[in-house]
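mind reviewing this fold:
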Amino acid sequence: MRIDSAQLCDWGGVNKEFKAFNGIRIPSRSDIVWKEKTGDFTWFQCEITEIEYIKSELF
């Protein structure tokens, strides 16, 4: 695809799975989908397998 032929299209995310990490439930597996005239196109898939939260400490 040439850059001058690019067109804007709607897009969205589809959460496929949820997991609890340190007691906080978040989407752990998601797809990013472009909504094209010819149908949905899955552009990106991601999975969170571990997470480290920022620990608040007194300064």
